[in-house]
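Instructor's aside before we start: the two examples that follow are unrelated to each other. I chose them only because their records fit on one page, so don't look for a connection. First example below.
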Amino acid sequence: QVQLVESGGGWVQPGGSLRLSCAASGFTFNFYAMRWYRQAPGREREMVASITASGDSTNYADSVKGRFTISRDSAKNTVYLQMNSLKPEDTAVYYCRRSNGVIWGQGTQVTVSS
């Protein structure tokens, strides 16, 4: 079965960094683009970053461009989100998902506060 396990979240002060991981299984990982989403309290879920199946192209929401970097490791079936210069408005539960996906993982909480 498709399984997505996000990890790496936590609490950081503004300006800090975190690296999130998403371990994928149950499908051919390198056939699919992968995406990171986030959902803050009282707000709709939004796409934060995406990466093509080959890893040769990425896309970011304007709110995180220049601060976040998405990458993938085919050998580990894992997609990463490096988050730098974190802001309080980045506080949310972060999820990963494959393109055309149906299944969501449990998410990982990121809290940015002083």
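Example two begins here.
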Amino acid sequence: QLQLVESGGGLVQPGGSLRLSCVASGFNFKDYVIAWFRQAPGKDREGVACISHYGDSAGYSDSVRGRFTISRDNAKNTVTLQMESLKPEDTGAYYCVRDSKGRCGWRVGPRWGSPDAWGQGIQVNVSS
């Protein structure tokens, strides 16, 4: 019943923009910190961004800070990742995740938080 469904991925040129969305269902959305992870080819999954329960604070990995913006709309059970100035190294599968412990500091590390639910992932390809 619990679902996290990503959308908005695709192919984009370096320097371009892309907007990912995640729609949640089956739980009380506003009670959870939500985050995005990604997995590049041949690499482990890494945390990208997190957002607090009511969207009043957010954290980012060092590699995306200043380029990506996470937001949420609790009325629509939706979290969004706006990606700007995309680089080839941003290529990978992006996952929307629910955190079980409600943590969201200013920095998101490779193994951020305590995820207890994952979306299926959506592909982002940054290439010329």
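The mean pLDDT is 96.
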